[in-house]
Amino acid sequence: MNEQMKKIGRQMGIRMGILMSFCLALTGTISSGHFTPVGFLFSFIVSAIISIFIGFLVPVGKITGDVCRRAGFAQGTIKERLLSSLISNLIYTPLITFVMVLLAYTMAMKQSGGMAQLSFIPMFLHSLVICFIVGYVLIFIFQPLFLKQLMKKYN
Asked: Which pTM does this prediction carry?
């Protein structure tokens, strides 16, 4: 049973990582006002690598399950889903957003020869707020759907 849960956890990490990466890369590049297909694709690939890496290294399901149990929230309730979505979002979104904004900032500075009037912290915080909201909604909606699919697949 433990091996089966590890498989489900890895599959969840991959599915959620790809979904989050696609949507956050799209959100980030659109909200920057400088959407390019190449920029989006680059952000998506880098973000997907980071997300999958997080999914394989961090036992997100175990962490969220433990915190929700300690909070006294029964599995599958709206309170549990709200809290577990928040925890998952806190694990994934800040790191992904930081790396994507850092890449965009670095490219903008290179393209302008260092003359761009950009400040990293405001860029990051603006993107983080937007991506955090998008990430939370995505996790809240898709995590239980993916889990249900994987439970059927492995049972």
From this structure: 0.87
Residue ranges of alpha helices (H) inside 32-119 are: 37-57, 60-70, 78-111
Residues with Cβ < 8 Å from 123, sequence gap 6 or more? Answer: 101, 104, 105
pLDDT digits (tens, 9 = 90+) for 53-76: 888 888 888 899 999 999 999 988
Find out whether 132 and 88 touch, Cβ atoms under 8 Å. Answer: no
The alpha carbon torsion through 150, 59, 24, 118 (nearest 10 deg) reads -170
**Nearest-angstrom CA–CA distance, 72 and 138:** 24
| Nearest by Cα to 135 from 101, 91, 81 | 91
Report d(CA 52, CA 92) in Å as an integer: 10
Q: Which residue has the tokens 């680059």?
A: 42
Nearest to 55 by CA among 4, 100, 6, 99: 6
Chain centre to alpha carbon of residue 91: 8
